Model the fold of this input.
Amino acid sequence: MVVTKPLALRARIILPVSQPAIEDGAVLVSRGRIAAVGRWRDLRHKAPACVHDLGDAIVLPGLVNAHCHLDYTDMAGAIPPPRSFLDWIEAIVALKAAWGYTDYAQSWLNGAKQLLHSGCTTVADIEAVPELLPEIWTATPLRVISFLELISVRRRQRPATLVWQATRMIHELPAGRSRAALSPHALYTTNPELLKFARRAAHRARWPLTMHVAESGLEFDMFQNGRGAMFNWLRKNGRDMDDCGTRSPVQQLAALKLLSPRFLAVHVNHLASGDARLLARASASVVHCPRSHAFFRHTPFPFTELHDARVNLCLGTDSLASIGKDNRRKPELDLFAELRAFAAQQPGLAPEEFLDLVTRNPAAALGERGRLGELTRRAQADLLVLRSKAALESAAETVVHTPPDLAGVMIAGEWAIEPSA
Done:
């Protein structure tokens, strides 16, 4: 249902994230944005004629997924947990080679549907098949930031040409709810020249920029020490290895001037001394994907070091090609499931801080601070309705630790999933 008139949503609990939970609260929506948030008794005099009383429910911001690969959704369960990260790379390359346009399109759509039905309203998606755009955007109500993937291992094409082609495509895409930006895949699949051109293009256009960073110990060893299985494998495949052996991956990014407030470093499972401070000093963001991390059996995520350095931390789902089965069932994209998995590993955080990882923090990382990830005046009216009888004081804890009973999803003031009467 398209909401064409101002609307008041009343619920037993409003969880704005940007302020404490509100009992018997309301959210006023007008022209796709939030006009007011507060107690019903304080807002009822200015509420529009259309009032939707949601009853026993918690209303909170739509979740923001800071890292996903929608293209690979239908690869769920296709790759068993690998012996090494290189084994997984070879397996997914083989899978991708067997797919065509239709396979990727259907996989993307299935992933978008899974995200929507699990409470995600915005997704930072790595797009390996840019031919899908912009048609695929029109098939979902989600806000999608499609980061066009850039890979240059053997330099068959000049890095400047690769970046220019991707940038031209982005500028030719229609303006709307969804948009695009650039994603050099990783340090090991690119080279300093490509990264230089990508940084310049992103800076000129004020785009966010995202990369996989220090995901595996093999990558860390390759750059820090100039050795190891990944180093040898890539050298055999024609990669110029002159950028290896002197710095950690994070230090390499800093040297190339990629770290900035608009940079999203995905994974960052391995840090050298001082890396967390480098990320914090640049106001860069780090995206952790808990279930993918478990699938690869990586060493523990350096949460405490990053958190203590005050790095902006976010959660993402990654792809279903790198999430294990759940009791023999294929996994689905679910940011609430990622939140519960992370909370189980880090019990010391307050519930409100956990919620920031999937709302305000990723919104800030994507340049949408104050517009997404919170219920506040002038923010986009992207919100969730969860059926719940939780007490006010335990509302945030319930959202973090309990699988949600999702009753409704609103994006830009329109019901993507309309609550039942």
Notes: The chain is about 30% helix and 20% strand.
